[in-house]
Structures are given as C-alpha cells and as structure tokens.
Write a structure and sequence with these properties.
homodimer; alpha/beta; Rossmann fold; seven-stranded parallel β-sheet; three-stranded antiparallel β-sheet; 13 helices; about 40% helix; globular
Chain lengths: ~325, ~325
C-alpha cells in the first residue's frame, strides 16, 4: 500500500516517524507544510521541514519535539548579549542547518533539492518534500486587525492574539512540485497527520493541483484534538476563537468533503456517531503518542484502518 | 599626547592592547583595516576589526590571536557535516558577532556604528573605527595570473600562491569616515602598528584623505619583521616574492616619505644606520610581544619614543 502523508511540525512528525518504521521507502511519501517558513537573522528557516527531518533522522530533541537533541546554545547566548533578537531559539547544531540551507537557496538551489541533500546526509531514506519550492507564507489575521507572520504569532506572541482568519500568501503563484503530484497520483491512500488543520494541512492543500489530486484518493485524517484540547499548539484555541467547538468532530468536519476515514481518541467516542453521519468512517483508539512504541502502534493501526477503507472503497 | 593607531589583525592588536592599557580613551584612537572583510556563508565577516575588538575586550583567544577564547565549534562541525564550506573556522561565539553584524548591515546601519555598539557591549572604551563604512576589498594578484580575495589567499590557500601585486578594490569610491579624519587631524602622533604594510596598513592609507592628513603629522611605525621573518603572516614571504629583501629596513623604506620614527628589534640593529640615512629616527628594542607584559612594555617604549620625536620635531 502506497501512502502519502501530509504533515506539519511536532504532532505530524511523531506519526510520520511511526509510519517510517513500518513502511519501506517506496511506500511512504511525506509532504511537509512550509507556510511557517520565515527569515530570522537573515537565515532561511523551515521549522516544520526540520522537525520532520530531525525526527526521522533520530536527531530531534525528545523534550521539545523541535530542534536537535544534545543541543548547545553558545551562538544564541552571544546574539542575545549583543542585543540581537532572541525570541526564536536557534541552537548551535540547528544553526548549521539554517546556514547551509540559506547559502544553497541563495545559490539558486530549490528547497526540495536541499531537503533531499540533507536527508541523504542525515540517513533519512523516505522521500520528504516541502509543499512547494516557491514561498507560501501563512499570515494570521487577528481580531484586533493585525496581520502576523506565523512564527511571529506562534513563537514571539506565544499564540496570545485571538485569530480572525488565515491567509496563505503566495499560494496563487506557488507552483506544485511535480514529484509531489506524482506521489499523490501514485498513492493508494492519503493520510493527514495529526497536525493543525488551519496552519499545517490547509497550506499544503492550497497549492495548485494538490487538493484536486487528493480528492481522487481515499483520505484519512488523525485528530490533533483529544478531549477538546490540542495535544500541542493552538488548534483548539483557534477553533474556539473562530466560533467552533474544538472537538474531534470539528476537525473531521473541517476536511469533510475530502475524508473517507477519521481516527479519533477513545475519549472522544461520543463524537463518532456525528462524524459517521457525514459518511466518514470513524475509528477510535489511543491517539496520544508519548513514546516511540505509541508512534509505531498508532501507525500500525492507521495503516490497518487504511487497508480496511481501501477494501470497502473498491 | 593624542595618538591615532593604524592596525591590521593579530600583531596590530597586541600593540593596540598595550597602548590601551597605558593611554586613556581620549588619547588613543584606533583605525582598523577592513580590506580583509568578506562574505562567508552569507555572513559579513570583518576579521581585523573583530581581532582588535576581541583583544581589547579581553575576549580574544590567546592561543590563536584571532577568534574568541573558550570557543566551541558545534555549528562549524554541523556545517562541515552537511557539506558546507569549512576552510574558514567560525566558532559558535564568533558566529554571534557575524550574525548580528550581518543583520545590522542589512538594516542599513553603518559598520562604524555597529562597531561602536559592539564595543559598548564588550566594554571597549577606546574608539575603534573601520577604515571606511564603504567596502574596500584587498585583492591578491598572483604570479600565475589569479586574482584572489584576501581570505581566499590567506586562509583557504594558506598564502601558498606567489604574489605579484595588490589591489584595493573600491578605494576610489570609498568615503573616509569623518570621525577618523577628525581623529587624525586632532592627533599629536600617528602609529603604524606592527602589521603587514601591503595588506593591513596600505589599505587604510588608500582611503581618500587619510594619507594626506597623516603626512602632516609625525608618524612612527613598528616593524612587523624580526630577523628577516614576519612574526605572523606572510609579510616576509610577500616582500621576497616582490623582489625585496624582507628586512626591517625594507619596512621602513616602504613607508619612507611618511615616517619620522621607526621601531625595530634589537636583533636588527645592523639595519639602523641604513634607516637613519632616510632621515627616519630608528629605535631598537625587543619588539616581540609574547605576553601582556611585553605589550605594555613595548607600548610604553613606543610612547616615550613618540614623545622624543615630538620634542625633536617642534
């Protein structure tokens, strides 16, 4: 069974890492949100791509989910002491990634090429692609009328401003990556990892052609919300601010017309009936991934659920 | 007595640090070569400025003379592992300086402002100025017809190519810094630190107006060559390749029309007579600076020598 997984950062990375443990490299193709990418200290930073790749490479910091393990902060502290910006924490190891990516981008290399090159050096065998080689930037419009770059909202302002809407700046002109289109066309099933729908999965779906190709395939999504709370990040807060009840069913409804299956937590079993009314097959299990065993177990359950959906579909 | 010191990197920094120990901040004004500045990993690097400032701040690495003490190399190693350039060693602490300088330059700040800001944060009380806020780049033309940026020649190719000539690219259009011109006009004496004449002092003298103002003042130079050898760097090798005998007298001759006094090592006492024939007062002492005591002792001797020259001049 060939799988294409769409993912954002930490939550998505956990499931993708589980899938990578059980699927060979020709059966798992990973497409990552780059709407969070930004410039900081004149460096080109791709937070979700790095989180996914570091996690797959076994380099990720297990405490934070982002950044590298055994990280040091010498440059960060020096920058801070010189009065530089310090709201985005860049570790010394992590910084090496950004310096080289920035240099390669300035030399005219594509983000997808650079990511492939890094993955090779890090021993990541599964294909990992940015959603586009062209910039698409997630802008958070707040209820007070501000327009914030995603990291400005997410890290600098710690998700404090109430959101009004989202904009994916540049999506109209950003080109899809041919290999990603091929990957989707070639897939048996598409998996939306347990990432934020508004700012992780929707930006990917905004790229010309992806949504259309994905809509031809069975899609299953894993809820990033458990018991009305986001496992990590502002998804629940965003839904509440936008006037939705932040539940698993709300997530399923978000993707409604695309979904064949939806995986939610046992705790949310009461939502199941509602979701199935939308002709989405719901599957409940323990979806909280606290360690590697959880990731592999959930990945196995998701794949079995996918197989069941495929057998029903055809 | 008001002193303006012109300096390049390591050798110049040692004397300047000695002078800074014995002269208050309104009696020592330091002008630094920026012909070695270059872009590396998209960072704006000013090797001589940093060496001078780190040395004055007590942050310099005592082993190398360049870079910071207690340095770590985490980012450097990561860059190396990702296949990035590794010929120029950037420590984690040092990198903080370059990141902030690069950001401030891109924001439109002048190198002299940035240097003043850094000095304030580092506790450097004496004024330290780059020779210009505009780029002047020292190009080494080799005997095989290559044109190498200075760091490419100096670090990457380890001074191996034989030199034919030097070019200070951009000097025709680079503007002098008004504060430097004022400093020179205001000075009682100008000191050329024991730096490479070709690639440390000459670039400074190439800036419009400096040479003219300096020529109105008593100037004394300290030899960077002892017993036919450069204490550090390629000065002796350059002279030999250009067809000169690399001696203290050759250095004095290099600056001939500007010099009132010249400080050479005891070992080179035989050169003294030759130098004085050019109407330059020569003073011999131990000019090798191996520790802080040496720096202070030499600085004191240089200042006393300067006072003697001033008394003779007027």
């Amino acid at each position: 069974m060939k799988v294409v997984a769409l993912a954002g950062g930490v939550g998505g990375a956990k499931l993708v890492a589980g899938l990578a443990k059980i699927l060979p490299e020709d059966q798992l193709f990973i497409v990552v949100n780059t709407g969070d990418d930004f410039d900081y200290l004149n460096l080109k930073i791709s937070p979700d791509l790095d989180t996914i790749c570091y996690t797959l490479a076994g380099l990720a910091n297990p405490e934070t989910g982002w950044g590298q393990r055994d990280e040091t902060w010498v440059t960060y502290d020096t920058v801070d002491r010189l009065g530089g910006p310090s709201w985005f924490k860049l570790g010394d190891r992590d910084l090496g990634t950004h310096l080289i990516r920035t240099q390669m981008l300035r030399q005219g290399k594509r983000l997808s090429e650079i990511t492939r090159d890094f993955c090779q050096k890090w021993g990541v065998i599964h294909p990992v692609y940015p959603m586009s080689d062209d910039p698409i930037r997630t802008i958070v419009h707040t209820q007070t009328g501000e327009a914030l770059g995603f990291q400005e909202y997410f890290v600098h302002q710690a998700c404090q401003p109430a959101v009004k809407s989202f904009e994916f700046k540049g999506f109209e002109t950003a080109k899809p990556i041919p290999a990603v289109l091929d990957g989707i066309r070639d897939a048996d099933i598409i998996i939306f990892a347990p990432s934020n729908p508004w700012v992780s999965i929707d930006p990917i779906l905004s790229v010309a052609g992806y949504r259309k190709e994905i809509s031809k395939k069975p899609v299953l999504a894993i809820s990033p919300i458990i018991g009305g709370k986001a496992v990590k990040g502002p998804a629940a807060k965003m839904y509440a601010e936008l006037g939705f009840n932040p539940t698993a069913a709300t997530i399923a409804n978000h993707y409604q017309d695309l979904l064949s299956g939806f995986v939610l937590d046992n705790i949310d079993y009461l939502e199941k009936q509602k979701i199935e009314r939308w002709r989405i097959i719901a599957f409940e299990t323990n979806i909280l991934m606290q360690d590697e065993q959880d990731r592999i177990r959930l990945a196995e359950e998701v794949i079995r659920f996918g197989e069941m959906i495929l057998n029903r579909s055809y």
